[in-house]
Write the structure tokens for this entry.
Amino acid sequence: MATGPVDNWLNIDTFGAIYPFVGTEMMLTIAGFAFWLIWHFKQIRKENEEFAKDIENIKKQGGPGAVLDDEARREIEDQVGQ
Amino acid sequence: MDNELTSLITIFTEFYYWVTVVFMFLIHVGFCMYEVGASRYKNHTHTLMKNTMLIPLVTITFYFFGWWIYFAFVNGPWISGPLVDAPWATPWSELMGTHMGGAPVQDTLTGDDTAFWARINGVFWAAFLLFSWTAASIVSGAVIERIRPSAFWILAIVIGSFTWIIDAAWGWSWNGWMVEDLGYHDAYASGVIHAIAGGFALGVLLVLGPRIGKFRKDGTPRNINPHNPWLVTIGLFLIYTGFWGFYVACNIPMIDVYGAAMLDVEGKSFFSATNIYLQPTTLSAITFNFLMSLSGGLMVAYMVSDGDAFWTYSGGLAGVIGASSGNDLYHPIQAMLIGGGGAFLAYKMHYWVENKFKIDDAVGAVAVHGYAGFYGVCMAGFMLWGYPSSPFEGYAPITPWGNFIGAVIMFFVLGFVPAWIVSKILNGMGMLRIPREIEMVGLDINHESLRAMEADEVAKAVREEARAGS
């Protein structure tokens, strides 16, 4: 069993491509493209879910104004060391 | 490689580009620090991730198609000729992997291709890739705190792996149609990186709109100051450092200029570093001019901004960018004065555009890169008027109008227009801007709520321990 074209280093001056599975470059390209595009679709879906959750949280806490008031309170607490 | 001289030149060239990549990495470290310093606390994590994740996305797409575009699009295509074959740069090429330079397996390649590209392809690809990151990262700073990360990453791929590399094929290549027909000269990328990125950022900003609170009801702008100016400062210093790699990556380190340009000068050789157009220059020349244009930019920006740290540092950058087009040939004092002009223009234009058109460019990227880059290309057209644009016979000489048309192509045609179109599409799909309520409270609300809850829990546990011990 050998995955690549190299079984010794005696004729290195004649070697070309030496990565495993020479000849599968087109398949690798298709797999690479698929990996890239799937990443975008999944990330966009994840981002939409994250934003929906954020908006829900903000609503639960009484809207953006209430969240900002709460943050201001925490900052003051941090500053006085509580 | 069967002799020491050939191997020395080949491996030196390979190592040279490899070192430029390491230096240019610092540009990205600088941009990340700069953006985090410029953004508000509530947006830090998302701001950092937005910039960081452009690295893998632009890298893989530059591998898939960006590198091929550089060689294939030199004629437009169909502006001055057809698509050009570039079998060493397709993602399925055996030369886009570990290769010892021997006979090819793929019949699209020749023995000469493999002998030449085996050791240079990866490092040359990476040097160009780091320019791609820079172009995308310039845009990243301008749009902080309100763009959706997913939208930004799509835009980053558009500029990083598509439009900038088209401009490089056209105007930053020994055989690009802009060089041949317009005499376009832009040795250290005032236009091909900075003007295009500035124009691109402007196109996105026009559709994206300002941050909430940026403008008063009467339309006058408020300053949203960097939350950490010192982080911004270190970021900009790192960008300066990375620029050394950027400059030398724009050169070919050692080549016989007569031979490379196939000039009819029998029996003569002249080995030199050259710019990307194969015109001779020296590392000494560009070192003089880099430092003098940086100095001119810093000095003018300090004066014009009344010693404002953010603008003084940015002005240094605008100084280098303003002189970069011709920094292979300028006298150092010319570089200093031209750099000073770039900083002045960037500062004045930023505030004029902000007031007049209500554009919220959070870090001044359009001004520092876009306007200074545009100016830099135009200045080189005047300063180098009549110089040959290439050592090859039959190319148009450098002229003010050739470089002006080139600057318009960089800033508007390949920068502003594609950005505006893609942003319009993303905006139409509701994918460009983050929801309003999230923008108000900050993109990191979930992270921050969790951190606050965890901090409360730890504080409570400590109090309980203290009570139990007393």
